[in-house]
Task: inverse folding
């Protein structure tokens, strides 16, 4: 059985989060099981962008603080690292509260840089990756994701959080290489997970996000801290708690097909608080549609008319240009605060929506989603 620890935590007050994180890790055998004395430990939170903790976009600093304290108690040498896509690392650390945690505990803040080749060999879909050297050189990686919905992948949880070990400017390249198929991108995430090999995953689900996450959804309280050595099992467990069928989750489909992590719910042992205490039945999740319903020569028709698409909310736009800069397919152009989309080129990665600081990119439901909505009434 693969254990996943579930602990109720209703506030980010420091002593409360420390108690919840400690209990979750103790249910798995204690931090000593994962960290040896003198080992260098990368704590990898979700530092998507320079947003304050109350926006619920990034891992809360109190959770990172709690993890770091447990590592220090075990004799490890923790440092905090990530590679934000656009905002400078220093600005992100200052806005998200990581700078304060590092100052209090005398920890290093390390931007994940210098992509290093990793050859995964047989069994991988993407055999040749480039992972930030700091993640590869660490003795232990502790993955500390945020519970959020995700417009492309349904959720961003433990496995998706490790996409942050891809150095900033390379993220858009990998989005483009993975293309329009969500299961292919899920396989990329699984290959990154395999390459990084986190020893422990601790989820911040005290507050999270629903709707059009991972950056511009609605904050929602889940009162959950969860942990597991198996990131796949943790993600699937959370998906089930949130009342979302596993078949809707691209990561589950890819992991089950490739036999990465534990994907059999009957072999996942939930420890700690009663799972019923975290059950959600009305979560607002993105409605994902497939691009692969017609032969390849009709891709232009599918992209333009059948599937959902990003749209510009001009009244909210400040013309910062971050959406145009991050687009991996170069499928949009910004002029005079007006975005023009090339839907034939758009791969529906929703990086533009994810990075927009003003929620100025929305969605227009495609014909497929509208039909499914009618059929499911």
Result:
């Amino acid at each position: 059985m693969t254990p996943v620890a579930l602990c109720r935590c209703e506030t980010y007050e420091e002593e409360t989060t420390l108690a919840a994180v400690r209990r979750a890790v103790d249910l798995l055998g204690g931090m000593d099981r994962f960290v040896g004395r003198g080992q260098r430990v990368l704590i990898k939170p979700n530092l998507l962008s320079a947003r304050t903790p109350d926006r619920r976009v990034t891992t809360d600093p109190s959770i990172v603080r709690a993890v770091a304290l447990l590592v220090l108690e075990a004799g490890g040498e923790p440092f905090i690292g990530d590679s934000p896509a656009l905002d400078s690392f220093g600005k992100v650390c200052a806005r998200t509260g990581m700078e304060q945690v590092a100052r209090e505990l005398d920890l290093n803040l390390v931007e994940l840089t210098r992509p290093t080749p990793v050859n995964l060999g047989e069994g991988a879909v993407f055999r040749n990756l480039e992972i930030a050297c700091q993640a590869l050189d660490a003795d232990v990686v502790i993955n500390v994701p945020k519970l959020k919905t995700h417009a492309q992948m349904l959720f961003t949880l433990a496995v998706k959080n490790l996409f942050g070990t891809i150095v900033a400017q390379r993220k858009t390249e990998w989005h483009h290489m993975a293309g329009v198929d969500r299961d292919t991108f899920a396989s990329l995430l699984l290959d990154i997970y395999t390459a990084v090999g986190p020893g422990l995953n601790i989820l911040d689900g005290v507050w999270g996000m629903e709707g059009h996450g991972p950056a511009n959804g609605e904050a929602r309280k889940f009162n959950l801290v969860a942990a597991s050595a198996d990131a796949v099992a943790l993600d699937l467990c959370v998906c089930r708690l949130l009342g979302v069928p596993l078949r809707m989750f691209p990561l589950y489909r890819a992991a089950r097909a490739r036999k990465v992590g534990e994907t059999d719910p009957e072999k996942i042992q939930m420890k700690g608080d009663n799972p019923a205490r975290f059950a959600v039945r009305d979560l607002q999740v993105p409605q994902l549609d497939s691009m692969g319903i017609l032969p390849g020569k009709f891709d232009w028709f599918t992209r333009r008319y059948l599937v959902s698409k990003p749209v510009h909310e001009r009244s909210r736009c400040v013309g910062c240009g971050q959406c145009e800069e991050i687009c991996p397919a170069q499928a949009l152009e910004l002029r005079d605060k007006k975005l023009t989309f090339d839907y034939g080129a758009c791969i529906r990665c929703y990086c533009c929506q994810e990075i927009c600081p003003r929620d100025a990119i929305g969605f227009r439901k495609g014909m497929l989603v509208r039909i499914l909505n009618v059929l499911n009434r």
Residues 124 and 191 are 6 Å apart (CA to CA). The longest helix spans residues 182-196. The two ends are 38 Å apart (CA to CA).
